[in-house]
DNA sequence: GTCATTTGACCCGT
DNA sequence: ACGGGTCAAATGAC
């Protein structure tokens, strides 16, 4: 009954997000032709704003039903399209899901690396899923009591797509350094790098737009390429702000980290996911695709996968 | 020796 | 009772 109104509300939000993303894409295009540093800074800020607004909307609504987003996760029982706030049944820990697709350019490591260190504590075959699900928790759980955990599930349909479910916010010191979005190693304010990053953003936005009609791509877009973006210092504060805001949505992990990474905490498997090379040696920044990858088709054109195996 | 991963057993919610 | 999530002993890598 109330379903309909929820549905309409979600449609409305989608539309808003769509507009924001298009706006961001346009700014990214302009960035490409901008000559002055000042203009670039301004555009970079605008791009970030678009992302921020989109995230705010998403954050407010909770995550769009993953199942409705296609890429069928094995655990999708309901087919409702309405968005819903996944408030963990487990206590009141925030929970959100991200879909990460491995890209040839980034490789598995980067694609899945969210900047956090994760330790795998279990793996399980899930009913109806071809690949086992990996369970990870923050490496600093013992030392700092960080309760963040994540689950990595490789998609049945798309072997290069991983669904990462995060639970809890990182309370460890790493959260402050990584944020959910910024890849520490990329913070070096190098202009070339900066431009490269924005180019990626641009590319990302284009891609998003292309897939716009597919909700399923919304998540992918959320792979903020920006995170790793060192962008200008003037924007750094903004990024951090965004990061904090996003922690609620992405958790600490995420994306390429964080807004940038990933799923910042490395997703895949923890090793994966969190890996981003961090302290514990555990996760070498690479998420080892673990078993899910063992059955990985070697024919996949992603050289990066090799890294997982090594 | 230390720490991460593996994996079967156990716990808990539905 | 079933399935998902976690624990913890065994094992492996560094």
UniProtKB/TrEMBL annotation:
<dbReference type="GO" id="GO:0005634">
    <property type="term" value="C:nucleus"/>
</dbReference>
<keyword id="KW-0804">Transcription</keyword>
<dbReference type="InterPro" id="IPR003657">
    <property type="entry name" value="WRKY_dom"/>
</dbReference>
<feature type="domain" description="WRKY">
    <location>
        <begin position="112"/>
        <end position="171"/>
    </location>
</feature>
<dbReference type="GO" id="GO:0000976">
    <property type="term" value="F:transcription cis-regulatory region binding"/>
</dbReference>
<dbReference type="GO" id="GO:0010193">
    <property type="term" value="P:response to ozone"/>
</dbReference>
<dbReference type="GO" id="GO:0010150">
    <property type="term" value="P:leaf senescence"/>
</dbReference>
<keyword id="KW-0539">Nucleus</keyword>
<protein>
    <recommendedName>
        <fullName>WRKY domain-containing protein</fullName>
    </recommendedName>
</protein>
<comment type="similarity">
    <text>Belongs to the WRKY group III family.</text>
</comment>
<dbReference type="InterPro" id="IPR036576">
    <property type="entry name" value="WRKY_dom_sf"/>
</dbReference>
<keyword id="KW-0238">DNA-binding</keyword>
<dbReference type="GO" id="GO:0042542">
    <property type="term" value="P:response to hydrogen peroxide"/>
</dbReference>
<dbReference type="Pfam" id="PF03106">
    <property type="entry name" value="WRKY"/>
</dbReference>
<dbReference type="GO" id="GO:0009751">
    <property type="term" value="P:response to salicylic acid"/>
</dbReference>
<keyword id="KW-0805">Transcription regulation</keyword>
<dbReference type="GO" id="GO:0005737">
    <property type="term" value="C:cytoplasm"/>
</dbReference>
<dbReference type="InterPro" id="IPR044810">
    <property type="entry name" value="WRKY_plant"/>
</dbReference>
<dbReference type="GO" id="GO:0003700">
    <property type="term" value="F:DNA-binding transcription factor activity"/>
</dbReference>
<feature type="region of interest" description="Disordered">
    <location>
        <begin position="62"/>
        <end position="98"/>
    </location>
</feature>
